[in-house]
Amino acid sequence: MNGPLLKVENLKVHYPVSQKSSLFRSATANLRAVDGVSFGVHQSEAVGVVGESGCGKSTLSRAILQLIEPTAGRVLWLGEDLGALSKPEMDRKRKDLQIIFQDPLSSLNPRMTIGNIIAEPLKAFHPELDGKSRLAAVREMMGQVGLEPELINRYPHEFSGGQCQRVGIARAMILKPKLVICDEPVSSLDVSTQATIINLLRQLQKDTGVSILFISHDLSVVRLVCTRILVMYLGQLVEIAGRDEIFNNPRHPYTRALLSAIPAPRLGSQRVRRTVLAGEVPSPMEPPSGCVFRTRCPIASHGCSQQSPPLHDVSNTHQVACHHWDDETHETVSNRSG
Questions:
Q1: CB neighbours (10 Å) of residue 102?
Q2: Contacts of 319 (CB under 8 A, 6+ apart)
Q3: Strand arrangement of the beta sheet that strand 80-81 belongs to
Q4: Tens-digit pLDDT profile for residues 109-159
Q5: What DSSP character marks residue 118?
């Protein structure tokens, strides 16, 4: 297969929000949760989406899966526009498109045993299977994610957070999907448990060839899972590159700031200088004119307020949305940060 499994084209998700403009009148503003995002995910590829909380990562994942309706743009799955499908047609596509949620316990039905939770997708998509066949498939899947099959009749509250996340992974993987979206799958877990879940996801991808879209605020976690990374800020992509390029040659000031926030990072042979961003993240209802990052950027110029920067090609595999990505000013200011 030459083209991407998943292709996102200029995707936007805007929410109308009522604001009181005076004592007796109200106005409506658009909250731009996702604002013109484009990228693709190829077969067996692991792509990371990183950014601060509130930058639109989770909204992006739900819009891709058509769990929320995009305002504009298209989501193409194997070349087919998911937004043009009827609900029954979209429901059939969900066999190949699965999601693993952030909070492992709250995403599981507390009234169902984990065996029934894992088996539920099989009942929906493979009604031809009898009870014995479903049970065998569930037990096999439990073994693949590191859960003892003897625990099949236990309930979610009887498990740790890491075990519950294994149940969620088993439920997502039992249909043998082509793409799994991992929405902050380890952020609520302790560090040692994070490592085991990350290793599990890597092993499952190696064994099955499933594509992964891994969403996180933590670049150090994404580095362990993904071969390509998308950096997102205020609903927009500001840098796209391979993992090594992002860590060894970050071009956007925001990417540099995210990297410098990793405790004692060493990227290649160089230590990253600490970059402290000024101010707060702007409201997505009132994003800055021009470049959305300019109000916190250490190298912003007057021109940054006039025009939103397109994604420039640094190389065939590296793009950055910054007016000054190749300026000497960029390098000078970045080297002085700290």
A1: 19
A2: 239, 240, 241, 311, 312, 313
A3: 26-41, 6-20, 72-77, 80-81
A4: 999 999 999 999 999 999 999 999 999 999 999 999 999 999 999 999 999
A5: H
